[in-house]
Structures are given as C-alpha cells and as structure tokens.
Records
---
Amino acid sequence: MNERREIHVPILARVEGKGALDLTIRKDRLSEVRLRIFESPRLFEKILEGREFREVPDIVARICGICPAAYQLTSVSAIEAGFGLDPGPDIRRFRRILACGEWIASHSLHIHLLAAPDFLGYEDVMEWARHDPGPVRRGFHLHGLGNALLSLLGGRPVHPVGACVGGFHRFPMRPEIAALAGRIRDALPMASALVRWAAGLDYPASDRSFVSVALRTEEAYPMNEGRIVSTRGHDLTPSDFEGRIREFQVPHSTALHSLLEGDPYLVGPLARINLNWDRLPPEIMEDLRPFGLRFPSANMHHSLLARAIEIRYALAEALSLLEAPVPESPSFHSVTPRESTGIAATEAPRGILWHRYDIGEDGRIRRARIIPPTSQNQAMMESDLRVTLEREGFDRPDDSLRRLSERIVRNYDPCISCATHFLDLTVHREKG
Amino acid sequence: MTTSRKPRIAVVKLASCDGCQLAFLGLGEKLLELASQVEIVHFAEAGPLGALTDLDITFIEGSVSTREDQDTVHSVRRQSRFLVTIGACATSGGIQALRNLSAGNLLSSVYPSPEYVDFLAHSTPVSSEVGVDLELWGCPVNGTQILTAIASLLFGAAPAAERDKVCLECKRRQIPCVMVAKGIPCLGPVTLTGCGALCPSFDRGCYGCYGPSENPETPSLARRFAGLGLLPDDIARRFLFVNSQAPAFLAEGRRWTKEDRHE
Ligand code: SF4
Ligand code: SF4
C-alpha cells in the first residue's frame, strides 16, 4: 500500500447543494478529512437588514427550497417572541400541520431519492425503480402527501405563501381539509409498511458515542417549540443556546462549523428520537420490536430509520390535528412592532434551526443571525468520517472508500444550500 | 421509439436554494417516465454525474455568483442545443441579487481577505453571460413548466405562451381582488401569471415571484400603492424583492428609492 493516498470526491451526488470531499491517507491514518462546501454564499443576513419584519418569512424561505416552511416558522416565532405576541392554540395547531407536511416531504425525498440507493446498491432512484418499483412508488406517494399538506396551508410545497407574522393569511377551508384527511387516513398503513421496510434494511454495525441535541417539550414530540436538551444533560432556552455554542470558520468551507461547549454534536431525526423516543406513540415502537431495534441508538446509519419513523409519526399527527374543528377565530393577530430582539428555535427536518432578529421600533430588521442544522452537523460529519474510515480500514480500492464516505455523509442529509448563507466568513477557495 | 439516441438532458446548479430542482424531483411517477424518454446525463442531486458534453437541453438553476459559475455557464452553452433557465435566480439574479443594490464595499465588509474569494459582487442572470433559449420564471418554477418546456423543445409540442398577468388569472378564477376588496397592495397587475394567482387566493397580495409581465404598467401601480398609504421606501421594497434585477421592477424600485440608499 502507498505511503500517501489522496481520494477526492469532486462533487457529492445525492446531497442538497454543492459539496466535495477530500481525504488524505498517510500510513493507514487519515491525515486530513475535508468536507468542502463550495456553494457560493447568498448573504441572507445582509439582505435582511433594513427590510420590514413582515417580509422576513418570504425572504428566509428562499434560503432553502427543501425546508422553506421551517425557515418561515422559525422566523415568525422569533419575531413574535420579540414583540411579545402569543399566537394561541389554533395558529400553533396549523403551524404544526405545516411542519408535519415538510417533515414528510423532506424525509421521503431523502430516504428514496438520496439515501436508500446506498443501502440497496443502486446508482440512483431511477435504477432502483426499474428493479423494484413498489417501494419507490410508496415513497413518491408519501412525498406527495407531504407536499399536499404544505399546499393546503400555503398553496405550493416550495416557498408556500400562507404563513405570516401573527398567524396565517387564511386558514384552509373545510372541504379541502376533509379531502386531504381522507387521503392521509388511507395512507397510514403505507407509512407503517415504510417503517417495517426501513427496519428490515441491512444496517452496517456502528457504535460510537456522540452528543445528540434536540428540542423537548412537556408532552408532544418536538416540532416548532421547546427547550434545547442534549444527551450530556444540557437543558437550555433558545436564548441561552447562543452563549453555549461556538461557531467558527474553516478555510475549506463557505459554511461555519459549530461546537457545543467544545464538542461536535448531532442534530436531526436521530438526535430527536434519541432524546424524545418516550414522546412517540407506543405503536410505532411496536413495529420495531420484531427487528430487535430500539432507541436511543448510537448507530448513525439508523438516521434513515429515524426518518421513516418520523414520517409515520407526522402523518398520524397531521391527521389528528386536521380532524379537530376548523377555528372560528381569525387566522392572524394584528401585529404592532416594537424595538426588540426575538429569538426562536424549531426542529427543521434536518434538526435545530435557530433564528435571532434585532428589530427597530419602525419594524425594520437591524441585524439577523441564523444557525441552520447542517452547519451544526458539519463537525460531527468530519469526525464520523475519520472514525468510521479508520475502523473500516484503507485496504480497499479508492472507489469503495469513496462510496463509503459518501454514504457516511448522506446519513446526515446535509443541506448545503442552508449551510451557506453566512455573513462573517473567510473563504480560501482551492481551485481544481 | 426510434433507434436514434435518446435526448440528453442535464440539470446544473449555480447559486440557489435548490427549490427549482425540486420541480423535477417532486414529479414522482412522471420523473420515472421522463427518465425513460430522455437520458438524464447530469443531475447531481438526483445522482447522475456524467460529463456536461453533447447535451440537448441544459436546465440551469441559480444565479451567476462566482467566476467558476461564469465558466460553467459558458461551457454548458457551448455543449447544449437548448439552454433553459429555471426560476428567478437563473432568470433575473434571484433574491440574492438584492446585494447588487448595496453600496460597493459590501464584499470587503463580508470578507476579511476578499482577494482570495471567488465571489462576485453582483449576482446576475445567466443571460448576462450567454444566450438563453428559454426562460422559465417563478420562484420556484413548477413541474408543469418543466414538462411543457421539454415537450415543446424536444417533441415539437406547442410552447406555453404565458404572457398574461396574475391579475387576469384572478378574474378567470373569480378570486375577489385583494386590492379593491381589502386595500392590500398587490403586484398582480404587473406580474407574469403561471402560479394560478396563488397569493390572492390566500387573501394576500402578489409579491412578484414570477417576474414582470409583458408591458407592465409599473408607474401607475406604484401610484396606486401610494394612494393606499405606502411610503416611497415601502413602494420601492415591493418592486425590489425576489426579481429585483428584472429591468421593469428595477426601474420602478429605483424611482421610489431615496438617493442615499444605494449610492
Ligand atoms: S428561483 Fe427561487 S425557488 Fe428557484 S432556486 Fe432560486 S430561490 Fe430557489
Ligand atoms: S401571486 Fe405573485 S408572488 Fe404569489 S405565487 Fe403568484 S406570482 Fe408568486
């Protein structure tokens, strides 16, 4: 074996956004792991300065086409928190339905189009569908239902137009709600089948301890609110979070990395379930029993299973929220701006999304700060690559190392478009 | 199917949110159908990473934001029979083009060492670099726009000539006018239709995500906004949003912008 080997993945396929991976191996050790994010920054924090608070949800949605509703929901909660406005239970309920729709759509996309081909040995979903169309059809159907929920509340799945600071421009109408509830009810067995299918996949063994970080609430599985907790015993308000994490720049990336009190940490579906499995209905855990699987899990490959479980949870949750009567109350509160700092954290499909807005008394944004899930996971991704590749050994062809690395990265479902919008960063682009 | 080779299609991404690519990935069964009719040569998010050569249609998402983007655009232009922009980013520079309106020192306020950064001060549409055969407006575009474009470019179907305004779409769908009924400022009278008048159907004003319609009467609409009580700067921000660099919106936005805001 060579003394020094370099392995490059010039474009990571089946991830959202533009990233690359460079590995340098020296004497059977990984001397360098660089997850290069070369998506060009779009400077959203800068764009937000001077805009009126009402424009924020439609601006931040455009940070990410895969989780625009999460950006909208986090921004409206942060701004309302600054203005001291409590939206009340009806608006909260419809916001939760919106989040359910986005989790279902985003997770279905990730499982079927991005991640599962790795587990099954196909190049992409097109090839998978030619060999075994059943599971792909089921995935498309569930994806379609997630999109239908987003459209119910916002007219379209990407950059929906329904949510606003104070509530929704309007609530959906009774017949549309009833029709979609019916389709969801019919699809529940499909979601259970998805969980069993995901539980039956062949997961490579992997057991390394890591810190999971997620929201947690008094009773429900966390979506749009809660305290930020960790498997290390953290229990923070969204406002305290800012002081505990450190974001820093690395030269090979246009995204910042974050550490929680000095350590890499995981956010996203697996971290959520690890910290909230007791908030899931018992029948979901029943489905897993025959497979001998349980949570919390220290196997990152189980993040695919975690997504399947959350699809099932979110479908049932959306159904029960849709079945409650349509509120008679107005769909939004009138909003009076005041000079304030508003902070909120939600669970986007890929994990904790944290926003902070400093707003003037004229309702204009003075400063914005956004911490998306992917930049929080980036340090974990690099350390996972290091540990897993060294354990698996380098005595294999480059191509197989490349595949293994891509598969490790895809477990995190990185969304590179989200990760790259920062203001204070240094980029040293390496050509070639 | 004839024996000739399948049309070769690529999807390329520049600075964007990935939302327009979802118009492909969200096609579901139709994506598989499409994959059987054409060869999807390059589409990183879906998997294929073939070389960008000898292409029948290249779809570009995202605005030109780096020197590398410029190179990409020129090279795919040379290799493609048809070049199609998808969405506001590729067609007008997108929301990130709002940085074009900031004072000139933005780059250095962002980057301590701007000389190392491959980052252009302005975000520009693909058409500022090369000729484009078809521009699909929208933030995002939808699946119907994509499928119609493929059908008309490759299979000779009639192109969708959407030149109407959102405003007409409301009348067609009998959506009550939000500006008349509720005094909500709406860009529907000057915005290209294609969304089905989504925002008015949600009781809100259009914010112009499909870009300017043909012959947009922006000055009279802006005066109407003033009549509804909007201050000049509020009027400017309506036009300077998702499609701020589309010439009609840029001109109207500038007319209502205080001089000191951008120079
Ligand atoms: S046009 Fe809009 S939806 Fe499309 S990539 Fe750009 S920001 Fe995203
Ligand atoms: S009404 Fe206007 S802003 Fe709303 S979706 Fe249609 S074009 Fe876009």
Note: Chain B touches chain A through 60 residues (CB under 8 Å).
---
Amino acid sequence: MVLPNYEAVIGLEVHVELKTQSKIFCSCSTAFGAEPNTQVCPVCAGMPGALPVLNRQVVEFAIKTGLALNCEIAGMSKYDRKNYFYPDLPKAYQVSQYDQPICRTGYLEIEAEEGKKRIGINRVHIEEDAGKLIHQGAITTSSYSLVDLNRSGVPLLEIVSEPDLRTPREACLYLEKLRSVLLFLGVSDCKMEEGSLRCDANISIRPRGETRLGTKAEIKNMNSFRSLERALEYELTRQMEVLEDGEEVVQETRTWDEGQQATFSMRSKEEADDYRYFPDPDLVPVVVDQEWVQRVRESLPELPDAARQRLMEQYELPAYDAGVLTMTRDTLDFFDECIRHYDDAKVVSNWIMGEMSRLLNQHNLEISASQVSPSALVRMLRLIDEGTISGKMAKTVFEEMFTTGKEPDVIVKEKGMTQISDESALEPLVVQVLEANPEVVEDYRGGKTKALGFLVGQVMKATRGQANPKLVNQILKRHLDKS
Amino acid sequence: MELCGLTVHELKDKLKKREISAADILDSCLQRTHQVEEQVKAFITITEETARETARVLDEKGEYPGLAGIVCGLKDNLCTRGVRTTCASRMLEDFVPGYDATVVKKLKAQQAVILGKLNMDEFAMGSSTEYSSFYPTRNPWDLKRVPGGSSGGAAAAVAAGQVIYALGTDTGGSVRQPAAFCGVVGMKPTYGRVSRSGVVGFASSLDQVGTITRDVTDCALVLNQIAGYDHMDSTSANLEVLDYTSSLVPEIKGFKVGVLQEYFQEGIHPGVKETIKRALLKMEEMGAIVEEISLPHIKYALPTYYIIAPAEASSNLARFDGVRYGLRDLEADNVEEMYINSRSLGFGPEVKRRIMLGTYVLSAGYFDAYYLKALKVRRLIKNDFDRAFEKYDVLVTPTVPTAAFKLQEHARDEDLLAMYRSDIATVPANMAGLPAISVPGGFVDEMPVGLQIIGKAFAEDTILRVAYAFEQHTDYTARKPSLGVK
Ligand SMILES: [Zn+2]
C-alpha cells in the first residue's frame, strides 16, 4: 500500500517471552497452558517479604539477542521499578530496565522491496511479565475478573526499533526477520497466538519530502502478522484522512479491533501515567564483563542471514527458497537433515515449501510437530527416483505419511501403490488399448502426435494410475511406429 | 531472681546443668506476661500453644543446644508460617503467611521457644509504637512513656521480662532507639549481614533485622544464629560469619574511639549529654583513646533519610492493594474505587503520610531534585564514615538525644518533626549500611539512656567488644524497670 503524497514513519516495540526453565526472579516454571495459578510462589505473587533473585540465564539470553542484533552490550545490568496499579501486577510495580538497558544501538537487516535495508534497534531491555486477567464476559460489562499469575514473572525482552520502517509491509518483514533471529537463537518460542511474541507500533505520517516527524499514534493489540499489517494500513489511511480534512493527528494510544478491522482510541497523552521509575533496591546490578560477552559471542549459532547465504551458495537455491527455508530454525534444521542424505537440494526445498508447508498450514502445525521425519521424506524421494512410485503417487503417500506418521515403504505396500515398471506386464495392456482405439491410432499415424497422450492415458487408467508412464510411452511408440 | 528476668547465657547454663527445663522458662515468661501485659501491651499475638509444644518436645529430649528452649518474641513484620503477621496494620490484620522469614526459619531450626508477635509502629513507620493500628505499647520503666519505636513491643517485652530476647527490624533506628528507651541492648548489623527474606519491606536499601537482648553477651549469642548469607536475598552478603562470642573481651586499651560532635550540640537533652560524657570518661579510664570528630555531611542524614525511605516505602507498600490478600473494600463498584477504599481504610495516618511523601519525591519533575540528590548525599555520608574509620575503630554518639518521651507528647502534626528527630543519631548507620549497637549508658531521671557504638561495615565483632567491655565496667544492664508510673 502506497500513499502518493505521504510517507509513513513506523517503529515497533516488540515483547518476547524468554524460554528459560524458570521465571526471572523465582524458581516457578514458565511452561505455557497450565491450570491458572499453579505456577506461583510468594515471590511472583508479590507476597509481603518475598524477595527477587535474578535468574542469570535471562541476562545471558539478553546478551545473545543483543549480539545477534548488532547491539552494544552494557557493562552492567541494572534493574528499575516501574510503578503502577493493575490487578494483574502483584507487586504494583514491574521490574524493568529504565535508563540503562542491557543492549543499545544495533540493527537488523531486512529484504525490502528495493533491496536490503537496515532497520535500527534503539534498545533491548529485560523486564518481567505481568499476570493475566480473565474477565467474566466482555471487559466492559464483566461483573468480575479473575487473576491468573502463572505468567507473572516470566522473563521478557523488549526490543525497540528506530522509526526506520516506511510501509506496513516493511514492518511485517522486520517482525518476521526478528522472529526468525530469535528462533535461531533459541531464546523464545515467538508464538503470537500464545502471547510469547507481542508487538506494539508507533506510527505517524508526513508529507513526502518533509524531514520532521508527524504526531504519532501508538497501536496496540495486534495479535498476528496479518493484523499488524492491516492495522498499520488502516492507521495510515486514517491519519491521512485527518490531515486531508485539515485537522491534526492527536498523540494517543489506539487499540486494533480485529472484529471491526479498525483502530480505536484508548487514551490520549494527557492521561499518560507517571511510572515513578527508580532503581530496585531489592536487586543488585549484575556485572556483564567482556569475558562473559565474548563467551556468549562464541556460542552464537548460525543466524538466518548466514544460513540464507549458505543455502544460496552451497546448494544454488533461489533466494526465495533460501528465504523460506530460513524463516525458522526448525525448518532449516529439517532441510539440513534431509540434505545430509539426499543430493538434490531443489527437490527437497520444493517438497518442504510445497506439500509440507501446505499440510502444516492446513493443520495449523509447526514443522517441529510434523510426523514426517527428514529421513522419511528422503526415503520417499528415493522411491520416486527408483521408479517405485510416480511423482503424483508420492503426493498421496506424503499426505498419508503426514497424517499417520507411517514410513513411505509401508504405505506403498499397504495401498498396493507400487508403480508397474514391468514391460511384460504392460505389453498386453498396450495391445488391448491399441486394438480398442483404431481411429486414434489412425490419427496418430496421420501426423496428430497429440493422440499419443490419449493412448497413454488409457493405459494409465487401465492400471489405476500405477503404470510407469515413461515406460508406457516407450512401448506405445514402439508399437505405433512398427508398421 | 525469676527465670524470666535472666539472660540467655544464664538460662543456657541452668539448662545445661539440668537445674531447669524449657517449660520452666516458658512458665515464668507466661506468668510475667499475664501479670504485666495489660499495662505494657507488648504483644499483638501470643502463640502460647506452639511455644508449649516446642518446650515439651525439647524437655522430652533433654538437650538444649544453641538457643533451644529460650523464650523469644518476634516483631510483627517478620513473616511466620501459619501465624498472622500484621505489621500492626489494619491492612494485614488477618494476613497469615504461608512461609517463614529466613531469620524465623533459623530460630525454629534452633528450637527457640517463640512466644509471639510483638507490637510496632504500623509497617515500622514511627519512633514510639503509638502508630500501631491496634494500641500503643508502654515503657516498662514508666508506663506513661513510650517504649520508642518502631520495634517498641520487642524492646518493652525484653525489658519487662516477657521474653528473654527479641528480633526487631531497624530502618532508621527502629531497634536501637527503643532499646535505648527501654534500657536494653539493641544491635543493627551491617546491611546484608542478616537476610531480609520474609521481612515485610519498608525501605529495602535500609532495612535490617536486629536483636534486642538484656546484655551484650546475649546479643552475640543471638547474632550468631541469625547472621549469614541467604540465597533468597540478593542483597545479603556472601561473607564468612565469625563466632561473635569470641569478641567478648572486657578490654579496649588503645582502641580509638571517635565521638561525633554533631550529636552533642543543639537538640540534645542536657541530662543525656552529661550521661554520655560520663560514659566516654569511663572508656578513657579503660584505656581507650577518645577523640572528638566531626563528619561534614552527617547533618544531611536525617532529611535525606526522609526522602529515600518514603520513596522506597511508597513502592514497597503498593502491593497492599486488596487484590490478593489483606484488607479489601467489598462495597466498591470498580477496581479503581476498590484500590482507593482499601488503602484508605487499611493504612493509618503516618503510613499514608510517608506513601504520599515517597510518591511525590519519585514523581516526574521532582525525581532529580529529591531522590537522585538524596542518593548522592547518601554517598557523601558513606564517604565521611569511610574516612573516619581510617582513623577510628568505632564512633560513638548518644543513641537518642533524649530519654523516652511521654505518650501523646508528639501527637500533634506540628510536633511530628520532633518525633522524626528522635532518630537523628541512628539514621546515619542505616544510610551508610554500617553496624551499630545501643547499650545502656546510664540514667536520666531514672529513665535509661543509650550509648551508640558504630563500626565499620561487617565489623560487628569490634562494636561487640567495645560494648561488652563498657558493660563489664558499668552496672547499667543490671537495673530492672519498676513497671510503675512515675
Ligand atoms: Zn514464583
């Protein structure tokens, strides 16, 4: 979407839940989906006298992320209290990092329409998540709300971009890229639907050529990549219409309503809270020395950009394929495992991007949850190469593998799907088809070579698709050219 | 002498010689409590049954290591599993923790006989125990006077013979000031020496658990049991803990004692001044080198304290919102109203005052001028002390510039600052995180006066030695309160 007279200026604030075993300040589990308030202790419930003790793994994950985003890592990790009242916030303050974030000034490269583009990272800081409110009915009419503190104290990173994004599409590309980096690092599950990846956007517009920033709106509650793009598109149009009407954009927080596909004002800047940040006296700053940073740097895994480059250079895959295969760590691992046992990278890529991805989407699954192992896919590809099954049959076999988890050989056997490549078995069928279709034979001999296709089809039909089409072709030709 | 009037070490001797049982000590303390509690009002909750059970089990075994069998009390801001912990506030009137504070765990592991939870100023904010939301505690030396605060219940109970020793907390003098007013020994260890886990937070960077005992030996014995690193408290110090009884040497010849001049000028009661001067002469007689010194920034300690402590308190006390525990207004129509009503009903006037003060100094536009500046001054105060300790082994002051004042004496709002000034000499040790002890230093008008000895960080052994030597050369700890009205 392009506005002819205006330019959009977009920055994203992304919150990711870190997948540490335990919470940031206590030993409670961070596992998702448990019964409400079963992963809670005096510390994360904010009971009187309970004190926080920092989980160092959180700092390690933050350093990892900072390095992957080309940030400067602070020598000290200091914690502040952000004070506000809300029923899901048990201590009535959130431990966060205010003036000294652990990581600053980095960048992330995206593949924008006009080519590679660097999006600045302003800061990455550590904080704790709040609990969750469960309203009885709609929030506005609910007579009571319940508090679930399982999520309270789950470690978060807040990753704040510079306002370098210029279109809703770019914002999406940035978020996708960020997600793949975090997945490659193994620091988060990044599941938007479970809330382990959340995104707010700051967006303003300005006339093209203008260098000053317009008044921004903060957009919240976008729960998927699609809603991010739609919300930003909506907001662009809205702000443009405001300006075109000769009015001014108001600085405010707006929420995206998925049902109505529109943003609505939540509160204006005048009502903004004073969070009274101050250093948390219950926590001591953690020293992050160069040695620690170096150790983390050396342990960094291959990141999406490097992997993409590798796939393009080593396997000569097209950029598009390389991009798709490096969207998540699990997809790349799947590909890499296949390619260790199978030479044709493009064929593997086609299957992963094609059938595999179609079925995953259809069943709403991640590749890690797929029942098809890399070795099973490779075995199936071999069956095609050996001529045991046709490419078309393979699709049926693959689908069966996907839903049942059975080995391809077993499926082929059970279904009697073996391809007929035995000449002596096919010979009589060919003769039968030729005898039954004398006019077509005449047509062919009269120069209508397309008639051959019809005859192949008839033989395939007679074998319920199991005949090796190549072989049928050869036998037919031999008979037709004979006399 | 009745058992309830003896010290920990005297009782330990008798237990060891099988002259008495744990039940005997408990009976004596209970009997005393029945006699005097009506007047003193030291307790909020008495746990007679569990105390009896602990004593019974101990007597069956017949072994009394450590603090086993000695009756004690706990200030009511130390969390006790299964026993309500109120902080003397309506807010937590019915709050029963599911966990013990680390210091309580340690005492329980020692099979200490815990007689109950002691009165205090609400959330430890106050210097007289008049700000308890339930009732004031009275000074056993003169029932018309306050016992000091905020650990007033703890100091009064020890002085009155209801318990043999008690644990309190000290944020700006809350152990030392009541100890001085009640004629007992009060120690605030170095910040980080004793775990704060399970201590209901007032000002996290200043709070420290302290001991209230009848003499310095008992102080060492109790400190031995509660000091040490705790992985549950990030601010606790991972340092070796000495056996403090080894510092009980009655000899301080050649010790360099610095006398902080600032506390002998305006505002000090002339009788207190005379008493402390006599105490210093005594130290000189004992061979110590006593010199006057002045710390340039110490005059800012009290005003700075009243920025930092309320700031932290405003945040620490925000969790009392009626959502999960504590008082909740059930009539409120929405969550906002519920917060406002619960906190308006739950907190008393002094707590509200400090929450407002703290909220103000942390607010946008005031943060730099107040809170940040206060942190800088705090650093300067600490530097002053560091320099002083290059030259002196200990620093001394009167613990409080006056003896115990009368109930209601500082009740009017305009007298509030006078009450705050009661902590003027004790606050600096909290600001600098240093260990300090108050020992009985004499009497003025038959009311006890405390001598404060401040040491280097983690030099509890040094102040214990000086305190012990002083105690051995005087007889102030031997005097007992009359429990009457003067
Ligand atoms: Zn927990």
Note: The radius of gyration of chain B is 21 Å.
